[in-house]
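Thread amino acids onto this structure.
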């Protein structure tokens, strides 16, 4: 996020600010290994290959974000992409916070910061994500996100449990959040 975007985000009352000691940033390829470790250690996310996190940092950096600690290392991340058939929709793929940094509001600040940037720079009008019913933390995060921004959230099963090849995978519930208003003076 550029300084101007940070000023714009800070001026909006619906944006959760990044906690002191952290910086919201765009991921770089060099962050891929750290992001993979945070995902692995979360114990909640489906872990993708380490290679995929390198690709996220290269090919989807504009729709992803990291929170850097005082040393510049990733402490949390959110990955996303624009839906090919609905380019005004940001799909949040994964969001996780390193165990040492949880409880400080980093996930909410990352989600708010990325969405503000995507609305302003990419013309995003809505956010989608899928969450399993047993993931209480993510369900709370996205419900509070919608409430904080005063936008509706609609939920529907996207992928039923029977579609997954492994036993015991819960259904993936699609959360459709928005529409967001494009702020005055944005690039769109």
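Threaded sequence (188 positions):
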């Amino acid at each position: 996020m550029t300084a101007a975007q940070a000023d714009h985000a800070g001026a909006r009352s619906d944006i959760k600010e990044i906690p002191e000691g952290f910086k919201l940033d765009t991921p770089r390829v060099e962050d891929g290994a750290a992001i993979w470790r945070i995902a692995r250690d979360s114990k909640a996310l489906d872990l993708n290959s380490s290679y995929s996190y390198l690709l996220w940092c290269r090919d989807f950096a504009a729709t992803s974000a990291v929170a850097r600690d005082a040393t510049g290392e990733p402490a949390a991340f959110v990955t996303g992409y624009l839906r090919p058939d609905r380019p005004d929709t940001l799909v949040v793929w994964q969001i996780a916070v390193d165990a040492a940094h949880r409880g400080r509001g980093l996930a909410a600040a990352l989600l708010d910061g990325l969405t503000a940037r995507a609305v302003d720079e990419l013309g995003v009008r809505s956010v989608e994500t899928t969450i399993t019913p047993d993931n209480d933390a993510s369900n709370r995060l996205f419900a509070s996100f919608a409430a904080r921004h005063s936008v509706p959230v609609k939920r529907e099963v996207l992928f039923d449990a029977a579609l997954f090849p492994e036993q015991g995978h819960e259904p993936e519930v699609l959360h459709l959040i928005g529409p967001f208003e494009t702020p005055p003076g944005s690039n769109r």
